[in-house]
Every structure is written in structure tokens, then in C-alpha cells.
Write a structure and sequence with these properties.
With 281 residues, the protein is mainly alpha-helical. It contains 10 helices and 5 strands; from the N terminus they run H-E-H-H-H-E-H-E-H-E-E-H-H-H-H. It has 2 domains: 2-131, P-loop containing nucleotide triphosphate hydrolases (Rossmann fold); 171-278. It has helices at residues 2-5, 41-46, 57-63, 80-93, 110-121, 134-137, 159-166, 171-201, 207-245, 254-278, and strands spanning 24-27, 98-102, 126-130, 143-148, 151-156. Helix 5 links the parallel strand 2 and strand 3 (126-130). The longest helix is centred in the last third of the chain and has 39 residues, at 207-245. The two termini are 31 Å apart.
Length: 281
């Protein structure tokens, strides 16, 4: 939906209309990668600043934790979190009255998230935010849209009200529940397809060929079972790490934790992809 709103993707049904006076700014998941690596931090904002705002660039950068010699650093040497902060500062500097933000806290440490949240809380325009970060959304949004089973449902209130209505503690729990439902539907569809195929093939196969097919099917089933066990283990590790990251007092090395978290998410995505592949065999 976000990509349709910002005209990156064409809608297949219905219409998408932007209000007459709406000036839309978009923060994509890879927004920090779109910065010019040869520019300095200061140059990044100076290139787009116009009017009196040019005299306040150092203050704006300071609000996003770029102070002193930091503003002379090349974008190329910044960490992922620093580039994300700079990309957001650049976005807010533009005269947009609607910001569409797609997972804006990716790669950000806790301090950066707090800075971003404060900046957005003071923003006068409208925000559309796609995020699984409960703490970031808490107090920032006043309406939730849930996309599920091909439908969109609106919830008035903040993210905590939404989670209370779902009897859940975090958004990742909801995401895992939805993934489990989708996975079960895929599995049922694959099993039905397999039954139909077997009925057709078995009429023409020899005893030896049927036995070989059954052996291959048992092997695939074992691989699927092992894959599901790995997915369950990874989901638990991700949930535990998210719980730790939500409490700054428990974090000793946030950068190391972010790397571990991204690795777990990547492994989980790979396992889901492998699970889907096996279920199509």
C-alpha cells in the first residue's frame, strides 16, 4: 500500500488520489542508501536548504545528533544508523505536509530512535508509518490500520490500545501469528495438490516407481519438519532479542545486538523461503 501511495507501484483496482495541497515526502526502507556518499553531512542538507532555514542547518543537524566535527564527515564513512538519521533530517527539511515512512527505525540504535520520535512528534503535518516497533509507535500514532486476510481494518487509538484489543504484547507476535496462518494455508494447498497428482500418476506407475516416489516424499516431509523446527527456534530467539532491545538498561553493546538481530531475521527469512520451496515440490 505504501508503494502505491507514493506512486512507486500502480494499483490494480480502485483509485488513488492525493489531495490538492498535499506535498508528499517518502522515506523508503533503503532511504539511507540513496544519499550521495561523496557529500559531507552538512552538504547533504545544504544542497536542498532554501531561505532562512540555511542559517539553522547546524542546529537541525545537532538535533539529529550531528555535532562538532561530525558535520564534516563524508556520508560514506557513516554507520547505518547515522545515515538513517541524516536521511530523515533531509526529508524533514523539505516543505512536506505528509510523510510516508516505511520502517524508519531500521538500523537505528535506541538513542537515534528517541531523536527521530521527538522530531516526528513535533512535526506539524500528517504521518503514515509502516513499522513493527511498538515503543517507537507508542505515543506517536493515533490510528492503526491492520492488513490481514485481504482486508483492511481501522482501529482508533494508539498502538497499545491496538495490542490490548488483540491481547498481545508486541507487533512481532501478531506478525508471527499471521505468518503461521499463511504458512498453514500454503501447506494445505500443497498437500491437496500432492494428493491430486498422486491419484493421476499412480495409475500409470510401476510398483518400483511408486516406492521411489514415496521415499522422496518422506524425505521432503522430514526436511519440512526440520525447517519448521528451525523457524520456531529462530522466532523465539528474535522475540527474546526484541524484548531485550526494548529495555535500554539491558543493552550493553547495541551495535553488536543490531548485527545479531539482523542476522537472525535474515536466517528466518531464508528458512521461510526454504519451507515454501519444499512445500511446492
Amino acid at each position: 500500500m505504501m508503494r502505491i501511495i507514493v506512486k512507486e507501484l500502480e494499483n490494480t483496482e480502485g483509485t488513488v488520489e492525493t489531495g490538492h495541497n498535499v506535498a508528499l515526502g517518502y522515506y523508503a526502507q533503503n532511504q539511507e542508501d540513496l544519499l550521495d556518499k561523496n557529500d559531507t553531512v552538512y552538504d547533504t542538507l545544504d544542497k536542498i536548504a532554501v531561505g532562512d532555514i540555511r542559517t539553522k542547518l547546524r542546529d537541525i543537524l545537532g538535533a539529529f545528533l550531528f555535532r562538532g566535527e561530525d558535520i564534516d564527515k563524508k556520508v560514506a564513512v557513516l554507520s547505518g544508523g547515522e545515515r538513517a538519521r541524516l536521511a530523515m533530517a533531509k526529508l524533514i527539511l523539505n516543505p512536506y505536509n505528509l510523510l510516508a515512512l516505511d520502517e524508519p527505525t531500521n538500523h537505528m540504535d535506541i538513542r537515534s530512535k528517541d531523536v527521530l520520535k521527538q522530531a516526528l512528534a513535533n512535526y506539524d503535518g500528517t504521518l503514515i508509518v509502516v513499522s513493527h516497533d511498538r515503543d517507537f509507535l507508542d505515543g506517536l500514532v493515533d490510528k492503526i490500520y491492520e492488513f490481514r486476510d485481504g482486508k483492511v481494518k481501522e482501529y482508533l487509538g494508539g498502538v497499545m490500545d491496538f495490542l490490548d484489543s488483540k491481547k498481545m504484547e508486541n507487533l512481532s507476535e501478531l506478525e508471527r501469528k499471521n505468518e503461521a496462518i499463511i504458512a498453514e494455508k500454503i501447506k494445505e494447498s500443497a498437500q491437496e495438490k500432492e494428493k491430486q497428482t498422486d491419484k493421476t500418476q499412480n495409475k500409470h506407475l510401476s510398483y518400483t516407481e511408486q516406492k521411489e516416489i514415496e521415499r522422496q516424499q518422506r524425505k521432503i516431509k522430514t526436511q519440512i519438519d526440520n525447517c519448521e523446527k528451525r523457524i520456531e527456534t529462530l522466532e523465539k530467539e528474535v522475540a527474546e532479542l526484541e524484548e531485550i532491545m526494548s529495555d535500554p538498561s539491558k543493552v550493553t553493546n547495541y551495535q553488536e545486538m543490531i548485527l545479531k538481530y539482523n542476522k537472525l531475521k535474515s536466517d528466518l527469512d531464508q528458512q521461510f523461503a526454504e519451507w515454501e520451496r519444499l512445500n511446492t515440490l
